[in-house]
Amino acid sequence: MIECMTVGDMIPTNAFFYIDDTTQHGFLIDAGSDGDLLAEHAEMRGWTIERLLLTHCHFDHIGGAEDFSIRAGAPIYAAEDSPRYYSDPRWNLSLWGSGSVTLSDVTTFSDREVITLAANPDVALEVRYTPGHTTDSCIFYSARDGVAFVGDTIFCASVGRTDFPGGDEQMLWDSIAREVFTLPPDTVLYSGHTEPTTVGAEMARYRR
Questions:
Q1: Helix, strand, coil % over all residues of the chain, rounded to 5
Q2: What is the CATH number of the domain that holds 93?
């Protein structure tokens, strides 16, 4: 089961619950700006969130992370290059946004690491690093369910901005070609700020 909640006033951001129907355990991908609201929703639904996974550490994706982690008891995970973002309000853009946001207790994962659900190891997400929007950007891919949570790497009919600290346009397109467009065409892409799309639909836009 995948359930999206869009949270945030300044920049509405999609947070995704990826839940195993059998055990009602799962992951939260990104935390928007309201961790308490997300935690309340998980509690109401009777879900146990084992980990909070971050696609990258801009403020609109991590603002609610600490509150959610504390309330839900879910540790926070992000890419190996994430400390430069989550520890620095200039890099995570929170000084430009709603105030200083930092995180202090984050575990890192590596490229191609497979993150499995403790309650059901058949439920797993493969980490694929996709630098370009930020240096710590990544996507989470489930071959079993044919889905990928892509953060701000790629959207429906658009791609991530590269004019922020650490951004690189050529690196972004290389990441998309290597890590997104090599997925099966019917893979559903769940992004941080738009409606879902598919690999095939986005390849058709850009590969003329």
A1: 25, 30, 45
A2: 3.60.15.10
